[in-house]
Hints:
20% strand, alpha+beta, globular, single chain, 7 strands
Amino acid sequence: MQSRIFDKMNQTLIKTWSCNKLSDRAKGQLKYQLWQDNDDQSFGIALSENESSGGFSTELIKVEQIILTLQKLYHSAKPFHAVALKELFVGKSVNNASFLGAALVDQGVIRPHPQTARLLEVNDEYELWPLSFDDAVQQSSSPSESSHDIKPVSGKRGPKPKNQQSTQIDDSDALANVGDENAVHQEPI
């Protein structure tokens, strides 16, 4: 089990993907993200959104840890349930492993077993998976990329745009000038 990485501090969001869930009966899609450490340039994957019901952990799972887990599964040469990915999470949601499994299927690292429903198997070239991130990193650093897709994460918040600040002042002035419905209003005699 990996140590917890709080709030993705010192990480840069590289890309967000959408994918289907593992079950054909499941509704909605999942979103997951690729993050890169600003110091050692290592990568991590985090689940970020479920379009339907079902909780999950948004903690960052280091790609190196995923590869080590897949290596064990690959060398066992047996199909596995997504629950085999459970050890990667600190969070205890029952959906964590299957949602990560769906993301890894989407990435082409694992695939559904061809003969047994609900089982997965590791693709032969799973160790090459991190090399595929080079394109995503280059796209995220290109000036043509939209700014909402690239979000450097830090512990500080930036200043609010002036139009929002002035709106807040206007709103508070408006509230101060609104009378209380329950107040007694008297006219001078």
